[in-house]
Amino acid sequence: MTAYFKPLFTTLLFCFCLSLNAQREKIKFGAVSLSDLQNDDFEKYEDAEAVVLFDGGVANFIEEEGRFIIVFERTRRIKVLTKAGLDFSNINIPYYQQDMRNTEFVYDIKAISHTLVNGVDQKNELNKSDVYDEKINSNWHQKKFAIPGVKEGSVIEYTYKLKSPFMFNLPDWEFQSKIPTKYSEYEVHVVPFYEYTYLAQGIKNFDYTNSYVGTGSRRFATLDFKEMVYEFAMKDTPAFTDVQYITSMNDYIIKMDWQLARIIRPNGSKEEIITTWAQMVESMLKSDNFGKFIKSSSKSVEKMLKDDQRLQQISKLGDFEKAKELTRYVKESYNWNRMRGKYASKNVKAFLNETTGSTAELNLFLIGMLRAFDIEAYPVVLSTRDHGKIKTDYPFESFFNTLAILIEIDQQFYLTEATEKELEFGKLPAEYLNEKGLIVDEEKQGWVDLNITLPSLESEDMKLILNPSTLKLEGEFVKTLTDYDALQYKRNKNLIQRELNNSYNLIGDIEYPETYSPSVPYTLKYEASYPVSTFEGKIYFNPFLNKAPTGNPLKAEERTYPVDFVYSQKKQFNTTVEIPDGYSFSSIPENIQFSNSLIDFSFETLLDPSKQKIIAISTYVLKKAVYEPREYKQLRSYLAQVTEAYSKQITVEKQ
Q1: Is residue 413 part of a domain?
Q2: What is the Cα 129 distance to its own chain's centre?
């Protein structure tokens, strides 16, 4: 994907030249053309659930109570093509609340559905009483509504305004989504007191762009000024459909990210917002809610140490064990409130009293605690996978949304954090595994690799007996998991039940571990039966039943962006099948083995000398968490060999 970075003051000539041969499209809310209501013009979108006909955004700066605020207005029109496309009539509009003075407001919500009935546009308008407000967490809320009267073939449209006092947060704009977009435009009116830059992702050229001095003069403080207007538009943007094995859609879709670069005050003074990574680090270390929070935490821990016997015992350990136990201490003593952040939102005293905090408070406090015990520990700010990748060429603080900890002991480095109780020391939550993080320290400032090289293990052991009368394999199953694979099953104990509901009949209950430690494999045991197939008197089954993949997960022939499996993975399968007297194995899969820089694979079947028992053993290892586009064809080919081997069946027949 291509991405480029442009300050607005350098785009005038660029925009003017491109705008000469292009025109903007306009719509009137509430008036839909007959051609859009009919279905004849949408045959080329046969694979789409819906099509965005128009998506337009306008950002304005207005004065309110002696300051500027941003008013963002959006209008969107969508053609619903299939039953699945009806979901696009359910609208969520998020907004942020900090305090009484600093809060966003969503207002002027309107929505209409248009359906062609006997050649007439049948309209259904949204009732204001059907708009609901939902609290997501302590800061984020959203307006929710469902556009009424929507059917296949309907056109829906909605518009709203969002008022924001957060000047650093000029709304970004996405020209692409999961469905095709015929036309999308963004118009930004900028006042001379704020300079912004934008990062254009996946955009070589706009279909239309323009910039000009706005009409009419405005006044702020003692200064008269005119605003600058910037317009951007794109036509016929394809749907972004390949959403498997990526970090986030935000890393690849066509969009513009905006960042406040400089504030110019009426008295002529300037404040640089975008400078360098080093200056950003310096600013964070001076912040009451970051660097000073760490120092305050260290002082609080020194006081706690006088009365806390557990901390006193930890102080007697070696540095590595000390770091492990302090991390465990914070995980067990304090709770995560499910809020992410890189800055603390409360002081240390409040955090200790409430024993609950965000990722920022928990990790900054742990850093302070480690330092109080003379352990070298540094904050690492990062972006979670759903937040998108960090573009290291551009010092945007908005790239980061949480933090972790880098610990140095005897010239060895360990990454850890304080929220995930079920992960062992030295492991980050899977959502943190997003390329790299920035070390926030004056001396050690730099980038640290967040990817995990050691694979997580998922092992399936099966001891089965074939029952020809019931056409089932019956026996014992043991599932063993480590690290991130184990964490999924610890978090959701219904996950194994859902797997078994597909084809298995449980015999008794699933046996879960009575106690478990993050450093010990997580084991599930159960007894069950599994159906086999029969044809012309022969019995067929896969050696590993449905536990091993039999279809290639990589469908596309080519790929222009990485394949991201989050973490490297190791899968092991071990099956023993006994058959009764009077039956024999008439066909068994061939052995196969290969190893290369991308993947290891082995598959072997062993027939017992008695000829009444067979053992099938297989292992495959995805050696990387992330595979580059240049490796895609090879990886896809290797996985095709793996899944083809797993699709081979064992055949049993009566003698």
Answers
A1: yes
A2: 33
